Fold:
Amino acid sequence: MLLSSKAMSIKRTLLMVPSALFLACLQVGTSAAQPFAVGEGAAGWSGDVTPTPTQTLHTYARYRSRWYAGVGLGAGMGAVEDRRGFDQSTRFGPALSLRAGVVLRPWLLLGVEGSHWGAPDQHGWLQVYHADLVASLFLLEDLGFYLKVGVGGGVALLEAEDGASQRADGGVDVKIGLGYELQVGRRITSGLDLTFAHTSYSGGSVDHLCLRLTLGWY
Structure:
């Protein structure tokens, strides 16, 4: 009788071993199939796709901080509307710009922009200078597209070929532009800037449209 009880106990134990092994394998397989969140280690998948502090957001906006400076070089076309018999034909010539300011937000810059456009004239050389307060709005914060508007002062200068005489007219200047900046380094950008400017003075006005290659620093 005693031997029969021991035999039944051993038989029951042997029958339980396969069931325990099956449950253990099932638990290991379920854990292996479960993904882990980046940066969570063995804590398991949380379902949150928000980047952790250890991850880097590769956007242009994170480079725009504190202050900025830049230069632009290109060419433009323009015309003069003058009530004193000035030649009003369209002219083509080189264009230069310098800018500097502060970064109010990663998507909003405020600064000063000085620009120059010059073109040959039948009497000599026409030059237009601007000094404006300019706000630049990045339409897509994480990219480099921007819209800018500015207001300030402008001077139209006509210098004779021999340099013996010149005429200068000053007035109010307004400008609007579109551009794109490509991040080529941690602090350096390169891009294109298309700006239209209108300078109004007592005897008339000057309008010109300039396209410049730009180099910026943040």
Observations:
- The chain has a mean pLDDT of 77.
- Residues 2-43 form one domain.
